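Step 1: inspect the first sequence and its C-alpha coordinates.
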Amino acid sequence: MEFADAREAADLGAFLARLIHYDRAAAVRLQAGGGALAVFGRPASFEVLAIRTARLAAPYVLDVTVSAGELLEAIDEAAGSAVVPAAVTGPPWAGVLPPRGGWRQVPGLPGADAMRRALTVAVAEFRSRDEQLSPGDRTRAERDRIGREIWSRTLGDTRLPLRAVHAAQSLGFLRPVRAMVPAAAPVEEQPVALLESGSWLRLRTPYGSIAVRRAGIGGLTVTPL
Protein backbone atom coordinates (compact mmCIF):
# COMPACT_ATOMS: atom_id res chain seq x y z
CA MET A 1 0.00 0.00 0.00
CA GLU A 2 1.58 3.27 -1.18
CA PHE A 3 0.82 6.58 0.52
CA ALA A 4 0.61 9.88 -1.34
CA ASP A 5 3.83 11.01 0.38
CA ALA A 6 6.10 10.21 3.31
CA ARG A 7 4.28 12.66 5.61
CA GLU A 8 1.07 10.62 5.32
CA ALA A 9 2.95 7.50 6.42
CA ALA A 10 4.63 9.33 9.32
CA ASP A 11 1.37 10.83 10.58
CA LEU A 12 -0.35 7.46 10.50
CA GLY A 13 2.57 5.95 12.39
CA ALA A 14 2.29 8.63 15.08
CA PHE A 15 -1.44 7.93 15.45
CA LEU A 16 -0.84 4.19 15.82
CA ALA A 17 1.91 4.79 18.39
CA ARG A 18 -0.49 6.83 20.52
CA LEU A 19 -3.13 4.09 20.36
CA ILE A 20 -0.56 1.51 21.44
CA HIS A 21 0.49 3.76 24.32
CA TYR A 22 -2.96 3.23 25.83
CA ASP A 23 -3.34 -0.42 24.79
CA ARG A 24 -0.42 -2.51 23.52
CA ALA A 25 -2.90 -5.05 22.13
CA ALA A 26 -4.92 -2.43 20.23
CA ALA A 27 -6.57 -3.37 16.96
CA VAL A 28 -7.57 -1.03 14.14
CA ARG A 29 -10.03 -1.41 11.32
CA LEU A 30 -8.82 -0.28 7.91
CA GLN A 31 -11.14 0.82 5.13
CA ALA A 32 -9.74 2.05 1.83
CA GLY A 33 -11.38 3.21 -1.36
CA GLY A 34 -11.15 6.05 -3.84
CA GLY A 35 -7.52 6.85 -3.06
CA ALA A 36 -7.98 7.32 0.70
CA LEU A 37 -7.45 5.13 3.76
CA ALA A 38 -9.50 5.45 6.95
CA VAL A 39 -8.09 3.93 10.14
CA PHE A 40 -10.49 3.38 13.04
CA GLY A 41 -9.29 2.74 16.58
CA ARG A 42 -10.70 2.77 20.09
CA PRO A 43 -8.21 4.27 22.54
CA ALA A 44 -8.52 2.33 25.76
CA SER A 45 -10.58 3.97 28.52
CA PHE A 46 -11.76 6.98 26.50
CA GLU A 47 -14.97 5.24 25.33
CA VAL A 48 -14.81 6.87 21.88
CA LEU A 49 -13.75 5.96 18.36
CA ALA A 50 -10.76 7.70 16.80
CA ILE A 51 -10.47 8.04 13.03
CA ARG A 52 -7.32 8.94 11.11
CA THR A 53 -7.31 9.25 7.33
CA ALA A 54 -4.40 9.10 4.91
CA ARG A 55 -4.13 9.89 1.21
CA LEU A 56 -2.99 7.02 -0.99
CA ALA A 57 -0.90 7.21 -4.15
CA ALA A 58 -3.42 5.14 -6.11
CA PRO A 59 -6.91 3.70 -5.66
CA TYR A 60 -6.89 0.81 -3.20
CA VAL A 61 -9.82 -1.27 -1.95
CA LEU A 62 -9.54 -2.69 1.55
CA ASP A 63 -11.67 -3.53 4.58
CA VAL A 64 -9.88 -5.47 7.31
CA THR A 65 -9.13 -5.40 11.04
CA VAL A 66 -5.46 -5.76 11.99
CA SER A 67 -3.12 -5.37 14.95
CA ALA A 68 -2.17 -1.72 15.46
CA GLY A 69 1.32 -2.75 16.57
CA GLU A 70 1.90 -4.94 13.52
CA LEU A 71 0.69 -2.19 11.20
CA LEU A 72 3.01 0.32 12.87
CA GLU A 73 5.97 -2.03 12.35
CA ALA A 74 4.95 -2.52 8.70
CA ILE A 75 5.07 1.20 7.86
CA ASP A 76 8.13 2.34 5.94
CA GLU A 77 8.10 6.11 6.49
CA ALA A 78 11.03 6.79 4.17
CA ALA A 79 9.38 4.93 1.30
CA GLY A 80 5.90 6.19 2.17
CA SER A 81 4.44 2.69 2.10
CA ALA A 82 3.11 -0.07 4.32
CA VAL A 83 2.45 -3.79 4.13
CA VAL A 84 -1.02 -4.64 5.44
CA PRO A 85 -0.67 -7.25 8.23
CA ALA A 86 -2.74 -10.40 8.49
CA ALA A 87 -6.32 -9.93 9.65
CA VAL A 88 -7.23 -10.47 13.29
CA THR A 89 -10.54 -11.17 14.96
CA GLY A 90 -12.04 -7.74 15.43
CA PRO A 91 -13.24 -6.45 18.81
CA PRO A 92 -16.98 -5.69 19.11
CA TRP A 93 -16.58 -1.97 18.41
CA ALA A 94 -15.07 -2.70 14.97
CA GLY A 95 -18.47 -3.86 13.77
CA VAL A 96 -20.27 -0.66 14.79
CA LEU A 97 -18.63 2.22 12.93
CA PRO A 98 -19.95 5.73 12.33
CA PRO A 99 -21.91 6.24 9.10
CA ARG A 100 -19.97 7.32 6.02
CA GLY A 101 -22.47 9.96 4.98
CA GLY A 102 -25.34 12.06 6.21
CA TRP A 103 -23.20 14.33 8.39
CA ARG A 104 -24.28 17.89 9.07
CA GLN A 105 -22.43 20.55 11.01
CA VAL A 106 -23.73 21.40 14.48
CA PRO A 107 -23.29 24.99 15.74
CA GLY A 108 -21.92 26.02 19.10
CA LEU A 109 -18.52 24.31 19.16
CA PRO A 110 -15.83 26.47 20.84
CA GLY A 111 -12.49 26.99 19.10
CA ALA A 112 -9.51 24.69 19.65
CA ASP A 113 -7.91 27.05 22.19
CA ALA A 114 -11.13 27.16 24.21
CA MET A 115 -11.36 23.37 24.16
CA ARG A 116 -7.81 23.04 25.41
CA ARG A 117 -8.63 25.46 28.24
CA ALA A 118 -11.72 23.41 29.14
CA LEU A 119 -9.53 20.32 29.40
CA THR A 120 -7.04 22.13 31.62
CA VAL A 121 -9.85 23.15 33.97
CA ALA A 122 -11.27 19.60 34.02
CA VAL A 123 -7.91 17.99 34.78
CA ALA A 124 -7.25 20.54 37.53
CA GLU A 125 -10.65 19.79 39.08
CA PHE A 126 -9.98 16.05 39.04
CA ARG A 127 -6.61 16.46 40.71
CA SER A 128 -8.03 18.82 43.32
CA ARG A 129 -10.88 16.48 44.21
CA ASP A 130 -8.52 13.50 44.23
CA GLU A 131 -6.18 15.26 46.66
CA GLN A 132 -9.11 16.01 48.97
CA LEU A 133 -10.02 12.34 49.32
CA SER A 134 -9.08 10.70 52.57
CA PRO A 135 -6.66 7.74 52.28
CA GLY A 136 -9.51 5.34 52.89
CA ASP A 137 -11.65 6.87 50.14
CA ARG A 138 -8.90 7.11 47.50
CA THR A 139 -9.94 3.89 45.78
CA ARG A 140 -10.02 3.11 42.07
CA ALA A 141 -13.82 2.98 42.20
CA GLU A 142 -14.10 6.45 43.76
CA ARG A 143 -11.55 7.97 41.39
CA ASP A 144 -13.40 6.40 38.46
CA ARG A 145 -16.66 7.87 39.74
CA ILE A 146 -15.12 11.35 39.83
CA GLY A 147 -13.66 10.83 36.36
CA ARG A 148 -17.02 9.73 34.94
CA GLU A 149 -18.73 12.76 36.45
CA ILE A 150 -16.21 15.21 35.00
CA TRP A 151 -15.63 13.68 31.55
CA SER A 152 -19.32 12.99 30.89
CA ARG A 153 -20.08 16.71 31.10
CA THR A 154 -20.84 18.34 27.78
CA LEU A 155 -18.71 20.99 26.13
CA GLY A 156 -20.21 24.47 26.11
CA ASP A 157 -23.64 24.54 24.49
CA THR A 158 -23.09 21.29 22.58
CA ARG A 159 -23.94 17.69 23.43
CA LEU A 160 -20.32 16.59 22.94
CA PRO A 161 -18.93 14.96 26.11
CA LEU A 162 -15.62 16.30 27.40
CA ARG A 163 -14.13 12.81 27.12
CA ALA A 164 -14.24 13.19 23.32
CA VAL A 165 -12.21 16.40 23.54
CA HIS A 166 -9.83 14.73 26.01
CA ALA A 167 -9.29 11.88 23.55
CA ALA A 168 -8.68 14.32 20.70
CA GLN A 169 -6.06 16.17 22.74
CA SER A 170 -4.37 12.95 23.91
CA LEU A 171 -4.13 11.62 20.34
CA GLY A 172 -2.63 14.84 19.01
CA PHE A 173 -5.69 15.92 17.03
CA LEU A 174 -5.92 19.37 18.65
CA ARG A 175 -2.35 20.50 18.10
CA PRO A 176 -1.96 23.77 16.17
CA VAL A 177 -1.73 23.41 12.40
CA ARG A 178 1.12 25.92 12.31
CA ALA A 179 3.30 23.48 14.26
CA MET A 180 3.37 21.19 11.23
CA VAL A 181 4.66 23.70 8.67
CA PRO A 182 7.99 25.52 8.29
CA ALA A 183 8.33 28.68 10.36
CA ALA A 184 8.91 30.67 7.19
CA ALA A 185 5.48 29.75 5.87
CA PRO A 186 2.96 30.19 8.72
CA VAL A 187 -0.67 29.38 8.09
CA GLU A 188 -3.86 30.13 9.95
CA GLU A 189 -5.11 27.35 12.18
CA GLN A 190 -7.99 25.52 10.53
CA PRO A 191 -11.16 25.46 12.60
CA VAL A 192 -12.41 22.25 14.10
CA ALA A 193 -16.04 21.27 13.53
CA LEU A 194 -18.74 19.30 15.29
CA LEU A 195 -20.81 17.07 13.01
CA GLU A 196 -23.91 14.97 13.62
CA SER A 197 -25.40 11.95 11.85
CA GLY A 198 -28.17 9.97 13.50
CA SER A 199 -27.08 9.05 17.02
CA TRP A 200 -23.42 9.87 16.31
CA LEU A 201 -21.44 13.01 17.07
CA ARG A 202 -18.08 13.59 15.40
CA LEU A 203 -15.41 16.07 16.42
CA ARG A 204 -13.49 16.73 13.20
CA THR A 205 -10.02 18.30 13.21
CA PRO A 206 -7.32 18.70 10.55
CA TYR A 207 -5.51 15.66 12.02
CA GLY A 208 -8.34 13.23 12.65
CA SER A 209 -11.78 12.79 14.15
CA ILE A 210 -13.31 11.53 17.38
CA ALA A 211 -16.74 9.91 17.10
CA VAL A 212 -19.11 9.05 19.93
CA ARG A 213 -22.63 7.67 20.06
CA ARG A 214 -24.76 9.96 22.18
CA ALA A 215 -26.82 7.22 23.80
CA GLY A 216 -24.60 4.19 23.48
CA ILE A 217 -21.21 4.76 25.09
CA GLY A 218 -20.49 5.09 28.79
CA GLY A 219 -18.27 7.50 30.67
CA LEU A 220 -14.54 7.65 31.04
CA THR A 221 -13.23 5.30 33.71
CA VAL A 222 -9.58 6.20 34.09
CA THR A 223 -7.81 9.03 35.79
CA PRO A 224 -6.29 11.76 33.59
CA LEU A 225 -2.53 11.66 33.09
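Step 2: inspect the second sequence and its C-alpha coordinates, then contrast the two.
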Amino acid sequence: MAAGYCIAATPRMVEASGVAQGMVWQPDAAHVNPHGQWDALGVRELLVQWTAVDDEALVPGAGLPTAQRLPDWKRIGREPWAREVIVGLAGRFDESQARGNAAQLVKQSLALAAVKWPVHVAGWYFPVEVDPTWRDAASLAPLLDRLPKPLWISVYDNSNIGGAALAAWLDRWLPRDVGVLFQDGCGDYVRKPAVARAYADALAERLGPERVRIIAEAFRGLPGGGVRAASASELRPQLQAYRGYRVFLFDGPHYVSPALVREMVEARRH
Protein backbone atom coordinates (compact mmCIF):
# COMPACT_ATOMS: atom_id res chain seq x y z
CA MET A 1 0.00 0.00 0.00
CA ALA A 2 1.28 3.43 -0.90
CA ALA A 3 1.89 5.98 1.82
CA GLY A 4 0.76 9.59 1.63
CA TYR A 5 -0.81 11.31 -1.35
CA CYS A 6 0.31 11.31 -4.94
CA ILE A 7 0.98 14.71 -6.47
CA ALA A 8 -2.18 15.91 -8.17
CA ALA A 9 -2.16 15.49 -11.93
CA THR A 10 -1.97 18.66 -13.97
CA PRO A 11 -4.97 19.54 -16.17
CA ARG A 12 -3.08 18.37 -19.25
CA MET A 13 -2.24 15.01 -17.68
CA VAL A 14 -5.81 14.40 -16.52
CA GLU A 15 -7.41 15.44 -19.80
CA ALA A 16 -5.12 13.15 -21.78
CA SER A 17 -6.23 10.16 -19.72
CA GLY A 18 -9.92 10.45 -20.67
CA VAL A 19 -13.11 12.19 -19.65
CA ALA A 20 -13.15 10.38 -16.29
CA GLN A 21 -10.34 8.79 -14.36
CA GLY A 22 -12.28 6.74 -11.84
CA MET A 23 -15.66 5.35 -10.99
CA VAL A 24 -17.55 4.43 -7.86
CA TRP A 25 -19.13 1.04 -7.38
CA GLN A 26 -21.78 0.76 -4.68
CA PRO A 27 -22.19 -2.99 -4.12
CA ASP A 28 -25.71 -4.27 -3.54
CA ALA A 29 -27.58 -7.51 -4.16
CA ALA A 30 -28.13 -6.66 -7.83
CA HIS A 31 -24.57 -5.47 -8.49
CA VAL A 32 -22.24 -7.98 -6.86
CA ASN A 33 -19.89 -8.53 -9.81
CA PRO A 34 -19.66 -5.48 -12.06
CA HIS A 35 -18.87 -5.82 -15.76
CA GLY A 36 -18.48 -2.94 -18.18
CA GLN A 37 -16.33 -0.95 -20.58
CA TRP A 38 -15.74 2.07 -18.37
CA ASP A 39 -12.06 2.08 -19.32
CA ALA A 40 -13.15 3.40 -22.74
CA LEU A 41 -13.90 6.68 -20.94
CA GLY A 42 -10.47 6.73 -19.32
CA VAL A 43 -11.43 5.03 -16.05
CA ARG A 44 -8.47 3.27 -14.44
CA GLU A 45 -9.31 3.62 -10.75
CA LEU A 46 -12.17 1.94 -8.90
CA LEU A 47 -13.61 3.30 -5.68
CA VAL A 48 -15.60 0.62 -3.85
CA GLN A 49 -18.27 2.30 -1.72
CA TRP A 50 -17.94 -0.30 1.04
CA THR A 51 -16.73 -3.84 1.62
CA ALA A 52 -18.97 -4.38 4.64
CA VAL A 53 -22.42 -2.90 5.05
CA ASP A 54 -24.88 -3.33 7.90
CA ASP A 55 -22.50 -5.79 9.63
CA GLU A 56 -22.17 -8.07 6.59
CA ALA A 57 -18.83 -8.34 4.81
CA LEU A 58 -18.18 -8.75 1.09
CA VAL A 59 -14.87 -10.47 1.76
CA PRO A 60 -13.99 -13.36 4.10
CA GLY A 61 -11.53 -13.05 6.94
CA ALA A 62 -12.72 -9.80 8.52
CA GLY A 63 -14.44 -11.37 11.52
CA LEU A 64 -17.92 -10.47 10.26
CA PRO A 65 -20.71 -12.58 8.75
CA THR A 66 -20.14 -12.75 5.00
CA ALA A 67 -22.72 -12.18 2.29
CA GLN A 68 -24.10 -15.23 0.50
CA ARG A 69 -22.73 -13.93 -2.81
CA LEU A 70 -19.26 -12.39 -2.82
CA PRO A 71 -17.60 -10.31 -5.53
CA ASP A 72 -14.94 -12.00 -7.64
CA TRP A 73 -12.20 -9.75 -6.33
CA LYS A 74 -9.44 -11.45 -8.33
CA ARG A 75 -11.30 -10.89 -11.59
CA ILE A 76 -12.17 -7.32 -10.65
CA GLY A 77 -8.52 -6.63 -9.86
CA ARG A 78 -7.58 -7.66 -13.41
CA GLU A 79 -10.07 -5.34 -15.09
CA PRO A 80 -8.60 -2.35 -16.96
CA TRP A 81 -10.97 -0.03 -15.11
CA ALA A 82 -9.68 -1.27 -11.74
CA ARG A 83 -5.92 -1.03 -12.14
CA GLU A 84 -5.96 0.80 -8.84
CA VAL A 85 -8.61 0.31 -6.18
CA ILE A 86 -9.65 2.56 -3.32
CA VAL A 87 -11.17 0.09 -0.90
CA GLY A 88 -14.27 1.30 0.88
CA LEU A 89 -14.42 0.09 4.46
CA ALA A 90 -17.40 -0.55 6.77
CA GLY A 91 -20.61 1.41 6.34
CA ARG A 92 -24.37 1.49 6.73
CA PHE A 93 -27.07 1.96 4.12
CA ASP A 94 -28.74 4.49 6.42
CA GLU A 95 -26.74 7.71 6.79
CA SER A 96 -27.93 8.62 10.28
CA GLN A 97 -27.08 5.13 11.54
CA ALA A 98 -23.64 5.36 9.95
CA ARG A 99 -22.93 8.65 11.67
CA GLY A 100 -24.23 7.42 15.01
CA ASN A 101 -22.17 4.23 14.86
CA ALA A 102 -18.95 5.64 13.41
CA ALA A 103 -16.77 4.25 16.22
CA GLN A 104 -18.06 0.72 15.63
CA LEU A 105 -17.57 1.14 11.88
CA VAL A 106 -13.95 2.16 12.45
CA LYS A 107 -13.39 -1.03 14.44
CA GLN A 108 -14.86 -3.11 11.62
CA SER A 109 -12.88 -1.09 9.08
CA LEU A 110 -9.58 -1.87 10.75
CA ALA A 111 -10.37 -5.57 10.44
CA LEU A 112 -11.24 -5.12 6.76
CA ALA A 113 -8.02 -3.23 6.11
CA ALA A 114 -6.06 -6.16 7.55
CA VAL A 115 -7.48 -8.55 4.93
CA LYS A 116 -5.08 -9.61 2.18
CA TRP A 117 -6.74 -7.96 -0.81
CA PRO A 118 -6.26 -9.51 -4.29
CA VAL A 119 -6.40 -6.05 -5.90
CA HIS A 120 -3.91 -3.21 -6.16
CA VAL A 121 -4.92 -1.11 -3.15
CA ALA A 122 -4.31 2.57 -3.88
CA GLY A 123 -6.04 3.87 -0.77
CA TRP A 124 -8.98 3.55 1.59
CA TYR A 125 -12.39 5.18 1.82
CA PHE A 126 -14.43 5.55 5.01
CA PRO A 127 -18.10 5.54 3.90
CA VAL A 128 -19.56 7.89 6.48
CA GLU A 129 -20.53 10.91 4.40
CA VAL A 130 -20.31 14.40 5.85
CA ASP A 131 -22.10 17.67 5.16
CA PRO A 132 -22.27 21.03 6.98
CA THR A 133 -25.61 20.22 8.63
CA TRP A 134 -23.92 17.48 10.69
CA ARG A 135 -23.18 19.40 13.87
CA ASP A 136 -21.04 16.64 15.38
CA ALA A 137 -18.89 16.03 12.29
CA ALA A 138 -15.72 17.05 14.14
CA SER A 139 -16.11 13.96 16.34
CA LEU A 140 -15.07 11.99 13.27
CA ALA A 141 -11.54 13.44 13.28
CA PRO A 142 -9.96 11.21 15.99
CA LEU A 143 -11.63 8.17 14.44
CA LEU A 144 -10.18 8.97 11.02
CA ASP A 145 -6.74 9.22 12.62
CA ARG A 146 -6.98 5.51 13.47
CA LEU A 147 -7.58 4.36 9.89
CA PRO A 148 -4.91 3.47 7.31
CA LYS A 149 -3.72 6.03 4.80
CA PRO A 150 -4.11 7.27 2.10
CA LEU A 151 -7.68 7.82 3.29
CA TRP A 152 -10.65 9.54 1.66
CA ILE A 153 -14.09 10.64 2.79
CA SER A 154 -16.92 12.15 0.75
CA VAL A 155 -18.66 15.46 1.35
CA TYR A 156 -21.82 17.03 -0.05
CA ASP A 157 -23.57 20.35 0.42
CA ASN A 158 -27.30 20.34 -0.23
CA SER A 159 -27.62 23.56 1.78
CA ASN A 160 -25.60 25.52 -0.79
CA ILE A 161 -23.43 27.38 1.71
CA GLY A 162 -20.84 27.93 -1.04
CA GLY A 163 -17.45 26.47 -1.81
CA ALA A 164 -15.41 28.81 0.36
CA ALA A 165 -17.63 28.22 3.40
CA LEU A 166 -17.57 24.46 2.86
CA ALA A 167 -13.79 24.47 2.55
CA ALA A 168 -13.42 26.54 5.73
CA TRP A 169 -15.75 24.18 7.62
CA LEU A 170 -13.74 21.13 6.57
CA ASP A 171 -10.44 22.83 7.29
CA ARG A 172 -11.47 23.43 10.90
CA TRP A 173 -11.68 19.74 11.80
CA LEU A 174 -10.63 17.36 9.02
CA PRO A 175 -7.19 15.77 9.58
CA ARG A 176 -4.59 17.04 7.12
CA ASP A 177 -3.83 13.56 5.81
CA VAL A 178 -7.42 12.81 4.74
CA GLY A 179 -8.62 13.59 1.22
CA VAL A 180 -12.04 14.80 0.09
CA LEU A 181 -14.29 13.41 -2.62
CA PHE A 182 -16.72 16.22 -3.42
CA GLN A 183 -20.17 15.11 -4.61
CA ASP A 184 -21.08 17.58 -7.35
CA GLY A 185 -24.83 17.68 -6.59
CA CYS A 186 -25.88 17.58 -10.24
CA GLY A 187 -27.81 14.33 -9.84
CA ASP A 188 -30.51 15.91 -7.68
CA TYR A 189 -30.29 19.28 -9.45
CA VAL A 190 -28.70 20.93 -6.40
CA ARG A 191 -26.29 22.85 -8.64
CA LYS A 192 -25.01 23.12 -12.18
CA PRO A 193 -21.57 21.86 -13.26
CA ALA A 194 -20.01 25.34 -13.37
CA VAL A 195 -20.99 25.96 -9.76
CA ALA A 196 -19.72 22.52 -8.75
CA ARG A 197 -16.40 23.38 -10.41
CA ALA A 198 -16.24 26.57 -8.34
CA TYR A 199 -16.78 24.48 -5.20
CA ALA A 200 -13.92 22.18 -6.18
CA ASP A 201 -11.65 25.15 -6.85
CA ALA A 202 -12.41 26.58 -3.41
CA LEU A 203 -11.72 23.22 -1.77
CA ALA A 204 -8.45 22.82 -3.65
CA GLU A 205 -7.32 26.32 -2.72
CA ARG A 206 -8.02 25.79 0.98
CA LEU A 207 -7.14 22.11 1.44
CA GLY A 208 -4.59 21.61 -1.34
CA PRO A 209 -5.28 20.18 -4.81
CA GLU A 210 -3.81 16.78 -3.93
CA ARG A 211 -6.60 16.30 -1.37
CA VAL A 212 -9.54 17.02 -3.70
CA ARG A 213 -11.34 14.82 -6.21
CA ILE A 214 -14.81 15.19 -7.72
CA ILE A 215 -17.64 12.69 -7.81
CA ALA A 216 -19.70 13.32 -10.95
CA GLU A 217 -23.23 12.08 -10.30
CA ALA A 218 -24.27 10.06 -13.35
CA PHE A 219 -27.94 9.91 -12.35
CA ARG A 220 -30.88 12.28 -12.28
CA GLY A 221 -33.68 12.48 -9.75
CA LEU A 222 -37.25 11.89 -10.91
CA PRO A 223 -40.16 14.19 -9.97
CA GLY A 224 -42.10 11.45 -8.18
CA GLY A 225 -39.05 10.01 -6.43
CA GLY A 226 -36.39 7.57 -7.51
CA VAL A 227 -33.62 8.16 -10.02
CA ARG A 228 -32.67 7.38 -13.60
CA ALA A 229 -29.36 7.24 -15.43
CA ALA A 230 -28.13 10.54 -16.80
CA SER A 231 -28.05 10.90 -20.57
CA ALA A 232 -24.84 11.60 -22.45
CA SER A 233 -25.98 15.17 -23.08
CA GLU A 234 -26.47 15.64 -19.32
CA LEU A 235 -23.25 13.96 -18.22
CA ARG A 236 -20.95 15.53 -20.80
CA PRO A 237 -21.14 19.11 -19.40
CA GLN A 238 -20.19 17.81 -15.96
CA LEU A 239 -17.07 16.08 -17.21
CA GLN A 240 -16.09 19.04 -19.37
CA ALA A 241 -16.46 21.43 -16.43
CA TYR A 242 -14.22 19.34 -14.19
CA ARG A 243 -11.21 19.06 -16.48
CA GLY A 244 -8.03 19.25 -14.46
CA TYR A 245 -9.44 17.25 -11.55
CA ARG A 246 -9.56 13.52 -11.04
CA VAL A 247 -13.22 12.67 -11.61
CA PHE A 248 -15.10 9.60 -10.39
CA LEU A 249 -18.42 8.60 -11.96
CA PHE A 250 -21.18 7.66 -9.50
CA ASP A 251 -21.77 5.04 -10.06
CA GLY A 252 -20.62 2.90 -12.94
CA PRO A 253 -22.55 -0.37 -12.51
CA HIS A 254 -25.88 1.32 -11.72
CA TYR A 255 -25.94 4.21 -14.18
CA VAL A 256 -23.12 4.12 -16.75
CA SER A 257 -24.32 1.42 -19.13
CA PRO A 258 -22.44 0.08 -22.17
CA ALA A 259 -24.81 2.09 -24.37
CA LEU A 260 -24.01 5.30 -22.49
CA VAL A 261 -20.28 4.57 -22.73
CA ARG A 262 -20.57 4.07 -26.50
CA GLU A 263 -22.50 7.32 -26.88
CA MET A 264 -19.92 9.22 -24.84
CA VAL A 265 -17.06 7.74 -26.86
CA GLU A 266 -18.75 8.55 -30.17
CA ALA A 267 -19.34 12.13 -29.05
CA ARG A 268 -15.62 12.57 -28.37
CA ARG A 269 -14.82 11.52 -31.94
CA HIS A 270 -16.89 14.31 -33.47
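Step 3: confirm your contrast with the notes below.
Residues 50 and 88 are 4 Å apart (CA to CA). DSSP finds ten helices and 13 strands in the chain.
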